[in-house]
Design goal:
Blueprint: H1 2-19, H2 22-25, H3 31-52, H4 54-63, H5 84-89, H6 91-94, E1 104-107, E2 117-120, H7 122-138, E3 147-150, E4 162-165, E5 170-173, H8 180-193, E6 197-200, H9 202-215, E7 224-227, H10 238-241, E8 256-259, E9 283-284
Parallel strand pairs: 3-5, 3-6, 6-7, 7-8
Antiparallel strand pairs: 1-2, 4-5, 8-9
Helix pairs in contact: 1-7, 3-4, 8-9
């Protein structure tokens, strides 16, 4: 456990360093410069896929797709979209023989269906962390600012629904236990703990905001809320659900709501830092 926590902290630090360098500059690149950078790292990704990933080796052969003759991003349109069903049925063939020893095991919670198990490389995870750091930095976040997280915590039977990460200064609350009683307890805890930021699924934050409005509980310390992973349905619209009278923010606190949109990003990020431009600049309300 200690080794896992150390590795997580190390990758987080690497992501922070990347966010303060290349990631800070790329939003201001010209379109030609951005496309050249994307193409450079796309070629590196296709080379890795062809040489080390059995699934893509066979796919490229079947489609007569030459990864070394790709001269534009549009070439990707020849490749089929990688679906979750394919990942589940061909996970072993989708693993890079080069990266598997140091790979990071990831899994989804299954909130939208069946849980998904997969792997990623430390380099890709560094890029992911850098993208998050950049987004949060736009909202003013600094390391160890208090964040209340309504996601990524699935307590075992009999365990507490809340967990404090003392290193990051994050308070995790289970998104799977959002009953009216638990929402009231969460909100009272947040009013005492005074987080500067909220993080969670759009639906989870919506339920919490609705409970805050019903209970007339305000959290004036909150400066921004971060969402990701799920597309936000219209009924969870920020302007409809997270208005000032919900209690999750007050006019004085100037709370912003930031959505980390990945629906239009590439299906896989490069194995090395670089082509992070596929991430959209977050929308703020």
């Amino acid at each position: 456990m200690a080794a896992a926590n150390f590795n997580d902290a190390l990758l987080t630090l690497r992501g922070w360093r990347l966010s303060r360098g290349l990631m800070r500059a790329t939003p201001f690149y010209s379109r030609p410069r951005m496309e050249a950078l994307q193409l450079r790292w796309l070629r590196a990704l296709l080379d890795t896929a062809y040489r080390f990933v059995p699934y893509y080796q066979r796919l490229f052969w079947d489609l007569d797709f030459d990864p070394y003759r790709v001269d534009s991003l549009e070439a990707l349109q020849r490749l089929p979209v990688l679906t979750k069903d394919t990942v589940r049925s061909k996970l072993a063939d989708l693993c890079s023989m080069k990266e598997l020893r140091n790979a990071i095991h990831l899994h989804t919670s299954g909130t939208t269906g069946t849980p998904l198990n997969t792997y990623t490389s430390p380099e890709q995870w560094t890029v992911e962390q850098a993208a998050i750091w950049r987004q949060w930095g736009w909202a003013g976040y600094r390391f160890r600012d208090r964040i209340a997280v309504v996601r990524s915590h699935a307590p075992r039977a009999g365990a507490a629904n809340e967990r404090l990460d003392r290193l990051k200064n994050w308070l995790y609350m289970s998104p799977y236990h959002l009953s009216e009683e638990n929402c009231r307890r969460y909100l009272r805890l947040l009013a005492q703990w005074k987080p500067r930021y909220l993080r969670g699924y759009p639906s989870s934050l919506y339920i919490l905001a609705r409970a805050a409005r019903q209970e007339r509980i305000q959290l004036p310390s909150v400066r921004a809320a971060f969402t990701a992973s799920l597309r936000c349905p219209m009924r969870y619209s920020w302007k409809a659900s997270f208005t000032w009278d919900t209690g999750l923010g007050t006019p004085k606190s100037r709370c912003r709501f930031v959505s980390f949109s990945v629906e239009r990003s590439s299906a896989a990020l490069p194995p090395r830092p670089g082509a992070i431009s596929s991430r959209k600049r977050p929308s703020c309300a």
